[in-house]
Structure formats: structure tokens, C-alpha cells
Design a protein that fits this description.
Structural class: mainly alpha
Mean pLDDT: 93
Order of helices and strands: HHHHHHHHHHH
Largest sheet: none
CATH class: Mainly Alpha
Shape: globular
CATH topology: Hypothetical protein af1432
Number of strands: 0
Number of domains: 1
Number of helices: 11
Radius of gyration: 18 Å
CATH architecture: Orthogonal Bundle
């Protein structure tokens, strides 16, 4: 699919930026993994990938800003769970309704659990940026415990999720769509995936599982309490 979406007006994009920053700041304690540090990285890389593949850059940039608002709606949720909040942010920013709907489609299209080999140019750019964040060598070392805490899941559940969602994509040859990204980052991706495969295997060892339980009981990996299911900017 190679359709290019209509542009997002610069003024509207600036408002989306401000609203998402506001949400990330207000709810920083709930977003230790998917906070502004994640959003800003994905945004920067998505813009570069969009410029390289011919996608509409403003649409990709806007999609990157709102791609993870689902984590404010419900913990450990798919991108689709953030649809209402995403559309509310876009409407408040003055993004035309048809473009807003297309942005919502792009976010869902780019999600690791949903994507296939033939997705739109905009979704490819967003997907490559979000996937790169996952594949960074520092992510499992510095941020995995934050993902566990944010989403209230166990290490085994995270390992199952990563391997379950990423193995077929990796084996299918479309882990990255941009050929330059694939050339630069595929080694990182393969190493990351292997790490999570090994983590999953290690937890089948009874003594390792007991060790993990002991470490968890020390409170090193904290799980925050459940929060309200809706959050709107400026309210």
C-alpha cells in the first residue's frame, strides 16, 4: 500500500505536540516506559524515515506523537484502545477529520502485533521508528523494568509478548521496512530477540524462576496501582 495521506497543518501539529507533552508531563508517573522520552525518540526517527520513503512527513510526525496514548487509557493495551483519546487530541488540535481518521488507521497499521509486509508508507516510517526503540541495545537493560511496572505484567509475560509478536516478523524479513534501517539495525534486533528467547527459556528452570520471585519480592520491580481508564488533555 503506497497511498500518501494529506498533510497536517503546521499549526495543528504544534498543538498536538503541546497536548501530548502536557499528557506525558501530567501522567509521567504512569508512563515510565512510554513517556515523552519514548514519544520524542519515535517522533524524531519517524520523521527521518518518512523523509526517506516519500511518506507525508507531517502525518507521520503527528501519528508518532499520538501512537501510544492507549497506555493512558488502559495498561497493557493495544493501540486501538487509545482511539477515542487519540481522536480527541487530534480534534482539539484542529486536524481535519479525514486526516485524523487516517492517522488513527496508521497507528493501528504500524503496531507490531498487526503489521504485515505490505503496509502504507506512513505506517512503515512509524513502525520502523517504534521498532528501533524496542531493538536499541540499551532498551532491555535500562527500560524493561519500567515496561513491567507500567503495564503490570511479569517478566515471563513480557518475554512471551516480545517473542510471540516479533519472531514471525523477523523471520518474514520485514522487521524493518527501510533498507538503510535494516542494514544499520538488524543486528541489534536479532540480538534483542535472541535475548528475550533466552530469558523465556531460562524461566523454565525452576531455580531461575525462584530467583526471579525472590528478586521481585524485594520490590526492585514495582507495579503501580491501577489508574482511571480515561484521560483527556486540559481536563
Amino acid at each position: 500500500m503506497n497511498t500518501v495521506a494529506p498533510a497536517v497543518p503546521a499549526a495543528a501539529l504544534a498543538v498536538v505536540d503541546a497536548l501530548v507533552r502536557q499528557l506525558c508531563s501530567r501522567h509521567a508517573g504512569r508512563l515510565p516506559f512510554h513517556g515523552w522520552h519514548h514519544v520524542s525518540f519515535v517522533r524524531a526517527k519517524a520523521v527521518r524515515f518518512a523523509g526517506a520513503n516519500g511518506a507525508e512527513v507531517s502525518v507521520v510526525e503527528t501519528a508518532a506523537l499520538v501512537h501510544d496514548v492507549n497506555y493512558l487509557v488502559r495498561r497493557n493495551s493495544p493501540a486501538a484502545a487509545g482511539g477515542e483519546l487519540r481522536m480527541d487530541v487530534l480534534a482539539r488540535a484542529g486536524v481535519p477529520a479525514p486526516t485524523a481518521r487516517r492517522i488513527d488507521e496508521i497507528v493501528n497499521e504500524a503496531e507490531m502485533a498487526n503489521r504485515g509486509p505490505d503496509i502504507s508508507l506512513e505506517a512503515q516510517a512509524l513502525s520502523d521508528a517504534d521498532t528501533l526503540f524496542k531493538a536499541l541495545p540499551m532498551t532491555p537493560v535500562m527500560l524493561s523494568h519500567r515496561y513491567l511496572a507500567e503495564n503490570g505484567i511479569t517478566l515471563r509475560e513480557l518475554a512471551d509478548k516480545i517473542v510471540g509478536e516479533q519472531q514471525d516478523v523477523h523471520d518474514g524479513g520485514y522487521y524493518f521496512y527501510n533498507p538503510d534501517a535494516a542494514a544499520a539495525y538488524s543486528r541489534w534486533a536479532a540480538t534483542n530477540l535472541m535475548l528475550w528467547q533466552h530469558i523465556r527459556e531460562s524461566l523454565d528452570d525452576h531455580d531461575v524462576a525462584e530467583l526471579l520471585d525472590a528478586v521481585t519480592s524485594l520490590g526492585i520491580i514495582g507495579v503501580p496501582p491501577a489508574r482511571p481508564t480515561r484521560s483527556r488533555p486540559g481536563r
